[in-house]
Structures are given as structure tokens and as C-alpha cells.
Amino acid sequence: MDVSSPNLLQKQDPAPVKTIKRDGLFVFSGPHNGRAVPDCLEPCLGTDKNWFFDAHEAMDLHMDALFNALEKSCDNITLIAGNYSRLVCDLNALPDYAITRHSPEHAHITIPQNQPDTCCKVQHARRLEAVYWPYHNTKTATINEKRNQLGGAIVLDLHSFSPTWDQKKRNVELGTLRCEKTPFSRAFETYLRAQSDYLFVSGEPYRVAERKKNAAPMITKNNDLQYLGLEIRNDLIATPEGIDKMVIFLKKCVEHLEQHPDRNTIIKPRNAVMPAEAAEPELQQSWSI
To answer: pTM for this structure?
Structure first.
């Protein structure tokens, strides 16, 4: 480990973000796809290796395999994926909260390399510069490129969630994350409610308004975006068969939105379609199922 280097990432480290550019309006982003840890930090950030490689806290389990399958099967979807563990830097949290000190589910499990004596303000900023902002800047540049070339973009965050939480079973199979209702969210959620492949409930496994540290409002504002995230229960994509089924399903979703009668509204920036009196995303508290 070389903690003295001014650069967090060295030649042997993966790039912070992987981008597969394709023609078409669609962008799928996976902020929690990776499990990499910079070589200058302790392996697994000092946690137990067996825990780290099985922990949903370390990455969105099986989402990297789903993106690999989408890359092979879809020639009209641009893919953006974070390569580093969410415990190194959580790309879906606001910058000040991007480094957690312990497991979000099990508070007794601490992350040694994230404690204040190791990850001070300077080191926090170092991780943001090396891992956090390259992902978000790539996402912004990609959205702007789509808008300039195609007149709009449809951006969907993809996440996976665990079948249990706090020892309670989660029966829902698909959920959505949003700051507010937009033309995009209405069209997509209407389709998800009508399909019979998976059990869908909006606002699961959590609601953005309940997570003040969530980056969704920032992403919305920085990109003038109709923000929407799709949550997939991770056991549904834990096998090749499950991944194949999900790829087919996501391709159906893309086809549906491409042919939607409100397509021209769905692809527009948020401020072009939301009423002037609509609350700013940060202030949106209500959630109507």
C-alpha cells in the first residue's frame, strides 16, 4: 500500500467508471456495480474477506453480471457503471455522506479503512476526486451528448436489493426510486404494474424522501433529469437463467418506452415538462403509490 501518493488510484487500479456507448436514447447507469478497492487501501477495506465478498453493502450483488449480459444483448442502450465498492465511495449518496463508517444494516460491523483516524477530511476529498466525481461527470457528459445528438435521453438507474432486511423477508421483486412523479416515471410505472413477469411495488425497497443522504435530488438538479431508478431483488439475477429473463424483460421495457405515445415528453429534461410550481426535488416529501 502506498498511502503517500497524491493520487488514490494507481496504474494497476481499475478506472473509476466503465462506459459502453451505444446509439439510442437509453442510458442505464449502475452506481453500485463494482467491488474494487484501490490498491493503496487495505484489501476489503480491512473488513472480513468472507463478509465483504458476500455483502450487499459492498456492491449491488449480481448487477455487474446483468450489465455484462446487457452489453452483449443490447446495441441501443448506453451503459455506465461504477467500478469501485460502494464502501470505498457510495456514488448514490451525497458527497458529504459518500463514505460510511459501518454497515447500513448491521451497525456493529465497522469499516476499518473508513474510520476518522484513517479516512479524514483530506482522504474523504481524495476519494471523491478519484472515484465519485468521475462517475457523475461521465453520466452528465453522456446525458448532454444524447440530448445534443438525439434531442433527448431516457436515463434509468439500476440497482439490486437483498431478499431480506433486518431478518425480514421482502416479497416485492421490482421497485422504483424517484424524487417525484414525472412523465417518465408515470409511463414506466404504469407498464410495470401491468406486466405479469415480476411483482412490482413503487417506492420499494425505500423511498427517496426518507433518505436525506441520497444523491437522487442532486442528480436530478445537476442533469435537469426526470430521475428514476429501478430496483431488482438480487436473487432474481443470481443465475444465468435469471439474468437472461431480466435482459428480455428490460428490452421489453425499452421497446415499450420507445413506442410510448408520450415519448417526446418522456425524453425531455425535467424543467421542460414539470409545471413551474412543482417543488424542487429536495423538498418533495409526498409519495403516492
So the answer is: 0.93
